[in-house]
Amino acid sequence: MTAKTVSVVVAFHSGYGHTTRMAEATCDGAASVDGVAAELLTLDELTEDKWARLDAADAMIFGSPTYMGSASPQFHTFAHATSGRWFAQAWKDKVAAGFTTSGAMSGDKLNTLQYFTILAAQHGMHWVNLDLPPGTAETELNRLGGWLGAMGRCPGDQGPEAMSEADLLTAAHLGRRVADHALLLSRARLSI
Ligand SMILES: Cc1cc2nc3c(=O)[nH]c(=O)nc-3n(C[C@H](O)[C@H](O)[C@H](O)COP(=O)(O)O)c2cc1C
C-alpha cells in the first residue's frame, strides 16, 4: 500500500504582516515532516479554489492577529462562511490547531485561541494543543506560556521584522506537531 501524502493548510489572516510571519514558520514546520505537504492560505479573499483546498486538507491550522480581544473581522467572516460545511459536518475528523499574535504581552490572545477551538469543535475537528512547557527566558520556546496554541507578540510600534525568533520557533514546533498528528491519523485510517 502506498502511503498517501498528508495535506496541512495554514489558513490565516494578517493585517500588517506579523501573523504572516507566524503562518510562514508554522507552514515550514509542518512541511519539514516527511510525507506532509503544507501550504499557506490567506483568508482575505475566499475563492472557490481556496474552499476546495480547505475541503481536501487533512489538517488546518488557523491563524489570526488578536484584534479587540478576539480574531480579526476577516477571520470571523471566514468562520461564519464555514456554516454550510458545519451543517454538513464536512470537516469532521480533520485535525485542527491555531496561533495568534498581539501587541500586548497578554493582549487577550487566549480568547482568540479559544475561539478557534470552539470553531474546530463545532466542525467535529480534532484540536492539537501546544505540548511545550512555558519558557522561562525570552529566547525559549513558548516564552509566552500558552498551551492551547502558538502565541506571538510584537510591540505595537514595531514591524513584522521585529517578531521574536522564539515565537517563530514555537510556531514551527506547532506546525510539526500538527503534521505528525495528521500523519498518525491518516496511517491509522489506512490500516483499518
Ligand atoms: C484593530 C486592532 C485591534 C487590536 N487589538 C489588540 C488587542 O486586543 N490586544 C493586543 O494585544 N493587541 C491588539 N492589537 C495589536 C495587534 O494584535 C498586533 O499589532 C499584531 O501583531 C498585528 O498582527 P498583524 O500584523 O498580523 O495584523 C490590535 C491591532 C489592531 C489594528
From TrEMBL:
Domain (Flavodoxin-like): residue spans on this chain: 8-152
Source domain of life: Bacteria
An example Gene Ontology CC term for this record: membrane
Gene Ontology molecular function terms on file: FMN binding; NAD(P)H dehydrogenase (quinone) activity
Residue spans crossing the bilayer: none
One matching Pfam family: FMN_red
Protein name: Multimeric flavodoxin WrbA
Organism of origin: Actinokineospora spheciospongiae
